[in-house]
C-alpha cells in the first residue's frame, strides 16, 4: 500500500484531522522528556478502541511499525519513534471513551488516554484515588506499559498491584478484554498482567480496570539526618515494624549531592541549620483516619525523639511537608542544571544498598574520576536512582566509554542480584544492557512470547528476545 493510500484510509477510520504526515507532526510528540528528538512517518490519534483496532489492521496491511505513545513522560525512550519511513506514532491522548466508576467495588474502568491527574481529580470527590504518586503526569496506558512505581509504592504497590483488567488491541487488530475487573478471579490465566510492563510491545492498551484506594486524610513528613549510613536500614526496619507499622507511606533517601541539587541554588539555611548531612531520609506517614482520631504529627515526633535519644538520628525537620516534597521532586531538574546526567534506575535488596553505593562510587572514582555520584530514590521499596553528573567542563564521554561505564555499573548491580530497571521500564535507552545482563533462557522465552503476540515485530520499540542490541549508547 502506498503511503498516501494508507494516510487516506487511516483518515477514514479516525478522521482526517487526526492523521498527520511526518513533516507536519508537532514537536511535542517527537521530543521525549530527556534525550534527542525522534521521527515518524505519520501520527495517528484514534478516539475509540474500534478505531484503534482498524488502524492496527491497516498498519499490518501496509507493513508499518506502530509506536504507542501516552503522555510521553517515559524515561527510556520507548515512546519516541526513530524511523521516519516506517514508524507510525500512535498517540492515545484521544482515547477517552470509558470512565466507569464503581463505588461499591472501588474500581474504575478507564480509557488509556486519561491522565493520572484527571483520574485522581475526579476520584477525589469520592475519597478515592489511583494510588500511584510521581512528579510527572503520565497517561493510564503509559503507566500500565511501564508499570510505574513512584514515591508511595511502599504503601500502595506499583501499577501491577492495582490492575484488575486490561483491554488491548493486538498487532493484527484483534480486540481482547483480559480480566473481569474483579478483586478475586482465578478462573483464567492472568494474561492482563503480561501487558503491564511490556513497553507497548505486545499490544495497544485501550483501557484498564483499576483497583482504587482511599485517599489519605492526613500526612506527616520528616526530613531526617541519620547519625551514620549504617544507621539507615535499621531505622527503616524500626519505622516499618514498630509503633508506626502500617502508617509509613514513603521512605526516600537523598545523598548530600542530590539534596544540594534539590535546593536549586537556594542556600541550605532552612534545612538542618545549614549543616547538610551526608545522607538524609524523607519519611512520610499517612492515614485515612482524621488527626482527631490518630495524630500522625505527634506519633512521628515521638518516634524521632526516641531515635534521637538512642543516637540513630542526629537532626530532623518536621512540619515542612510541602517544602520537603518540593525539594525531593526538584532533584532531577537540579542535577541537569549541573551537567549531563547519566541515570541508572536500579533496584537492590535493601541489605545490599549501602554496600552497592560504596562499591560503585569507588569503581567510578578509579575508572571515571569526573563522574559525580548524586543518588537518591525510593529507598523503602529497594529502588535507587543512582544518578551521575558528568560536568559540562569535561569532554563528553565517547559512546564506547559511556557503554563501558554503564556495563560497569550494571555489572555490579547484577552481581548483587539487582535489577537494571526498577520502575522506568525497558526501552531503546537500555535495550542492549537488558539483553547483555538477562538470563539467555529468559530472553529465549520472552522472545517466543513476543513473537506469539506480534509475529512480525511491528509493535513498540523493545525487543524482549535475544536479537542484536540496538541501544544508542551500548
Ligand atoms: C519528572 C518525571 C518524574 C518521573 N517519576 C517517576 C517515578 O517516580 N516512578 C516511575 O515509575 N516513573 C517515573 N517517571 C517516568 C514516567 O512518568 C513513567 O514511565 C510513566 O508511566 C510513562 O507514562 P506516559 O503516559 O508518559 O507513557 P509514554 O512515555 O508515552 O510511553 C511509555 C511506554 O508506554 C508505551 N505506551 C504508552 N501508551 C500505551 C498504550 N496505551 N498501550 C500500549 N503501550 C503504551 C509506550 O510505547 C512506551 O513504551 C517520571 C518521569 C518524569 C518526566
What does this entry show, briefly?
By secondary structure, the protein is α+β, with helices and mostly antiparallel strands. The chain is 32% helix and 21% strand.
Structure description:
This protein has a five-stranded antiparallel beta sheet. The chain has a five-stranded antiparallel beta sheet with strand order 15-12-14-13-19, sandwiched between helices. Strands 1-2-4-3 form a four-stranded mixed beta sheet. β5 and β6 form a beta hairpin. The model is unreliable at 469-474 (pLDDT under 50). Helices cover 32% and strands 21% of the residues. The protein starts with a helix and ends in a 21-residue tail after the last helix. With 474 residues, it is of the alpha+beta class.
List keywords for this structure.
474 residues; alpha+beta; Uridine Diphospho-n-acetylenolpyruvylglucosamine Reductase, domain 2; Uridine Diphospho-n-acetylenolpyruvylglucosamine Reductase, domain 3; Alpha-Beta Plaits; 5-stranded antiparallel sheet; 15 helices; binds flavin-adenine dinucleotide
Based on CA inertia axes, which overall geometry fits? globular
Bound molecules: flavin-adenine dinucleotide
Gyration radius over CA: 23 Å
CATH topology of the largest domain: Uridine Diphospho-n-acetylenolpyruvylglucosamine Reductase, domain 3
Under the CATH scheme, which architecture of the largest domain would be assigned?
A: 2-Layer Sandwich
Q: Quote the beta fraction.
A: 15-25%
User: What is the total domain count?
Assistant: 4
Relative helix content? 25-40%
Enumerate the strands of the largest sheet in spatial order, edge to edge or round the barrel: 5-6-10-8-9
Mean pLDDT: 95
